[in-house]
Write a structure and sequence with these properties.
Length: about 100
């Protein structure tokens, strides 16, 4: 039988798309102020760095505002890994000029 992997997380308050369109109960106003935009950009880059430095690296392949969820404290989390792929690490390049024969 094939093995299945599941990811379980807490219930999220809304998506970033919800906030961009009409605001949310988390922030009580539509859109993003500059400070929140910077905060989310940093959180997203930290999340992507984590995924890309896993062994093997994980490529999300479907980043968009509706796949970026916010918890009740306003922390951004990446969701929907349906198109994600594990990417094998590239083999080290061998310089034929420096290769030694034994």
């Amino acid at each position: 039988a094939a093995a299945h992997q599941l990811m379980i997380s807490e219930l999220m308050a809304c998506s970033l798309l919800d906030v961009l369109k009409s605001g949310s109960v988390v922030f009580n106003k539509p859109g993003l102020c500059e400070n929140l935009a910077i905060r989310y950009a940093i959180q997203l880059s930290q999340g992507m760095n984590y995924l890309h430095t896993c062994d093997p690296p994980i490529m999300h392949r479907d980043l968009k505002p509706e796949n970026l969820l916010l918890d009740h404290s306003g922390t951004l989390k990446v969701a929907d890994f349906g198109l994600a792929k594990l990417r094998p690490r590239p083999m080290p390049q061998v310089d034929p000029e420096k290769q030694m024969m034994t």
